[in-house]
Amino acid sequence: MNKTFIVSILLMIFSSDILISQSITNNQAFEKGGWAIAIHGGAGSVPSSFTIEKKAEYEKHLLAALNIGREMLSKGESSLDAVQAVVVYLEDCPLFNAGKGAVFNIDGIHELDAAIMDGSNLKAGAIAGVRDIKNPIKTARLVMDSTQHVFLIGEGASAFAKLMGQEIVENSYFSTKERVDQINKIKENQEKPNPRGTVGCVALDKNGNLAAATSTGGMSGKRWGRVGDVPIIGAGTYANNNTVAVSGTGHGELWIRRVVAFDISALIDYKGYSLEQAANEVIFNKIDPMGGSGGGIIAVDKYGNISLVFNTGLMNRAWAKSTGEYGVGILKGDEKFFKK
Ligand code: ASP
């Protein structure tokens, strides 16, 4: 690896506080008919194998996913359809820990979790521990739209997906060489299970509707049917038109115990916090002191404000607004801003 690059990364990591908060705030009242979107592709520590090329690859795919959402929202499509379409793209991209490219559990099997929520009516759909559904987020949406339930697991969720004509794949479809190397290192105790690569999207559409979607392979090396925060409504995924849409990524056990996504909504709702205050409070004052491997959240509120907050070395992220501003970031402080 290029030495200058390693040095510049180390400088970025150690020269300032490790806690990162990035807010794209609307200074005036949100224009009527405006929209906003944010996406993440996981958070975690900076891997030792990280290179400039790898960073560019992540940026490319985050921007491609973002473009899908931007196009849909600018045409007036719903935030619900937009967050789903973005997450499908990221599930199909082998770089991320969701769909193709998902991590292995300790037994060498991929078990996937996903959830989606509609802020306009508080409907939600989630699945967990599935081994053969190509695009878990699509089945989560079908749980929401076509059943009286919110959360299906394992074989039952797969049976439902088949019934609904969803694409079923062999478990090996999700495998990549990177994930094989990663689980081998974990088994040999050379690497700790480290969250990185979960995907999520939150959006506000032109009609003022908020939606959130998150999809993951969970924590690498997980055991015994472990389920993380992602499919638990209010922990890793939440949307409510009165407050905010949130998607989380990180050490899921902490997100569950702190009910992170709902807590951000509750601080806005009950205490009148701004999105920025609520997101910072939860990540820096509640999650950070708990230790663990940390993580982050992306959120969009009902005014179109965006927050991207993380307490790790890296969060893959991108965002856009109807004003034409958009951007992408991987490491802390390396955001690139664009204007269309
Ligand atoms: N939150 C996910 C989980 O715990 C992992 C991640 O975001 O990388 O399952």
SSE blueprint:
Elements: H1 3-14, E1 20-24, E2 36-44, H2 52-74, H3 79-92, E3 112-118, E4 123-130, H4 136-146, E5 151-153, H5 154-163, H6 177-187, E6 199-204, E7 210-216, E8 237-239, E9 244-250, H7 252-257, H8 260-271, H9 275-287, E10 295-301, E11 306-310, E12 314-321, E13 325-331, E14 336-339
Helix pairs in contact: 2-3, 3-4, 8-9
The chain binds aspartic acid.
The site of aspartic acid (ASP) has 17 residues, from strand 9.
Structure overview:
It is a single chain. The protein contains 9 helices and 14 strands. It is of the alpha+beta class. Helix 8 (260-271) packs across helix 9. The longest helix is centred in the N-terminal third of the chain and has 23 residues, at 52-74. The chain has a single domain, classed as 4-Layer Sandwich (Glutamine Phosphoribosylpyrophosphate, subunit 1, domain 1). A hairpin with a 4-residue loop joins strand 8 and strand 9 (244-250). The strands form 2 sheets. Strands 5-4-3-7-6-2-12-13-14 form a 9-stranded mixed sheet. A 5-stranded antiparallel sheet has the order 1-11-10-9-8. Mean pLDDT is 91; it is low at 7-19. The two termini are 34 Å apart. Bound molecules: aspartic acid (ASP). Aspartic acid binds next to strand 9.
Question: What's the short version?
Answer:
The chain has nine helices and 14 strands.
Describe this protein with a few key phrases.
Glutamine Phosphoribosylpyrophosphate, subunit 1, domain 1; alpha+beta; binds aspartic acid; nine-stranded mixed sheet; 340 residues; five-stranded antiparallel sheet; 33% helix
